[in-house]
Amino acid sequence: MRLAGIEKGGFYPYPNHMAEATASWFIPPPAGTRGRLLDPCAGEGEIASLLGRLLNCETWGCELFPYRAEKAAARMDKCHNAAWESCSLTDESVTLLWLNPPYDDDRHGNEKRLELAFLKSTTPKLVHGGVLAFVIPQRILRLVEIARYLASQYECLTILRFTDGEYERFKQILLLATRRDKYNIPHIEEIEAIQRLAESDLAPLGFAPEPIYPLLPAPLKGAGGRAITFRRLDWAPDDLVEASRWAGVRKTRAWQDLVHPVNSEVAFTPTMPLKKGHLAMLMASGLMGTLNLTDDEGHLMLVKGRVIKVVDKTTHRDDHDPDTLVERFRDRYVTTVATLRAAHGLEIIEDTERLTDFMKAHGDKIAAHTLAAYRPLYDLKPSEEELAILDRLGKQRKPLPGQSAPGLLPTQKHAAIAAARAIQIHRTANIQGEMGSGKSSIGLAVIELLDAYPALILCPPHLVPKWIREAEEVIPSVKARELRRIGKGTDSDINDVRAFLDDFETGKLGRKAIAVVASTAAKMGAGWKPVVHAKTIKLNGKPLVVYTCPQCGQVQTDHQGIPVTEIEYFQKRRSFCSAQVSGWKLDTKGRRVWDQDGNPVWETRPCGAPLFEYSEARRWSIAEYIKDKAHNRFKILIGDECHECAL
Predict the structure, then answer these.
(1) pLDDT digits over 608-633, tens only?
(2) Domain contains 408
(3) What is the dihedral of CA 385, 390, 393, 399, to 10 degrees?
(4) Is there a single domain that holds both residue 62 and residue 175?
C-alpha cells in the first residue's frame, strides 16, 4: 500500500454528493418496516447515515480509527470503534451490505487482497436476497478470485464507475448485486465476463431510470433462528474501564437501589396488598430501606432492619469412637433492628422480647410506610367492567353452602383480577391455594377476563374430565375438548391439535374454546430404542464390551472420552455419534462448502448418525408440536399442579 494510503488507514471515503443518485437504484423496504445497513469500514459514518435516511434503514458498522469512529457513532445507529475482524455479527442479519474496504496492493505470504477478504467475511452477514454495494477500484475485477466469488454468491450485477471528476483519482466503481438464494458453481464464461469489465468503458453513476434493487425488511432472527447480536470482541483495558464507568454494573438500577434505598424506587411491585407476615419479612430483610420515624418523645429516629447469619458450633464425642470429637456447624439467621437517635445514639435490638416491644410501639408507622412504598398492582378495587365479567361466571353450578345464588366467591374474584393484571404486565402469574379454594375457577375466570381464546390447559391425567366439566360450568357458551394424541390411526392420521385449531377458526367451537391436555399425553412421543452394536475388545489383556456406531463403526465414548461399556448409557437419552469421520464439509444448513476454486471441501467432521431408532408406533409429542407448528396459536396456557411438570 502506498504511504498516503497507510496514513489514512486505506480509507477512501465515498463522495457524499453521489448519495442521492446511489439511493435511486434501490427500492426502500415496505411501508412500516426498516432495512438494516452494514458498513464494516464506516469511516466518519457520513455515507451510511445519508443512505440510512434515504432508504429507511438502520445503520450498523465499525471503524478502527478512534477519531473517525467517534464521529461515526454520533451519526449511525450502532458503530463500534474496532476492526471488522474484531467484531461478531450473526449471519444473515443485514439487508444492505455497504462495502468500501481498504485498497491494499500488498501481498505477504498467503495473504489475499483485502477487498476479497472483506467480501468473503461480510457476505454471510447478508440475508439471501439482500443487496451488496461494493466500492472498489475497477482493476480489482481482473482478479480471478474476486470474479469467481461474485459469480458464485451474487446475481443481477450492475457496475457503474464514479462520476467525472471523481473517477480519475482512484478509478473507483460501484458494483450492485443481489445475494443468491444458494451457492452457484460458476462457469468459466461467467468468471471471464466479470474479468473483462476491468478493462471496459463503464457508464458513470447517475440517477437510475427506475429502481431495480428491492431492500428487504430487517430480519428479527438470524441464520438458523439465532438471536441477532452485533458486538465487539476485543477490548483494551482502558476501554473496559471507560465502559464500566458509563455502562457497568454500578450504573444499573439494581445497584442504585441497593446503594440508595431511601431515594430509589420500589424494588418490586406486589400483585395484591401485603399482609402482616410480608411486612415483617420486608422489615427484617432490609428491603424497606432506612425509615425516618419519631420516638415516643417526638424526636427523629432512623430505623434500619436486616438479617444476619450466625454459625453455631457444637462439639461432642462420637458414639462409636469415644476418642473422636465431632464438630457440627449450623447456620442460624437472626433478625436485628438498628435505631439511631440523637439522645440515645446507635442501638441494636436483637432479642425477641425487645423486638416484640419495638414492633408494638412502632409497627403501625412501619406498616404505613411499607404499604405506601410497595403499592400493589391490584388494590382490591375492581373496575365495573371486571365485575360485570366475573358476575356472569359460575351460574350453571349449584350454590356453595352459605351462597344465596351460584357464582364466584368474592375472594375468587379478587384473585382472578389480580392474576389477570399481573399477566397483562409480566406475562405470567402464579396462583397458590389450599385444596378447595377454587384455583380452577380462578384460572378460568382469568381466561374470561383476558378474553384469551383459544386457551390451553395442562393438567394431570385424572383432572382432565374435571377441567372440561368445570370450564363448561363456569364460562357461559364455552366449548372444552381434550387433546389426546398426534400420530397414525387405524384408517388415517390423527392430529387433535390441528383439528381443534381448525374447528375454532372455522367457528365450529364458537368464539370461546378451551383445549385440555394431560401432562402425560403432552410429553408422550414416539417410542425409541438404542441401535448401537456391541463389540468385544481387549484392554490390558482382558475382554471388554464396548459399543460402536452402526454407521461409521467407531467406538462410542462419554463426555470424558472414556469408551461406554454399559448399554444403559444409550437407553437414558437419545444420542448421536460424535466420532470424527472423513467427509464433505457442510454448512449449518447441511449444504456442501466450496473453496475459492469452486471445489467441494473434504474434511474431518463429526459423524452425527443417530444411535437410536423409533418404534413402529408413530406418535408426535403434543407439547413439541404446539411449540414447533402451533406457535402463538393459543392465547394463554394454564398449568395445573405445575410442581409435577418439568416446565
Answers:
(1) 888 888 765 556 788 888 888 888 89
(2) yes
(3) -140
(4) yes
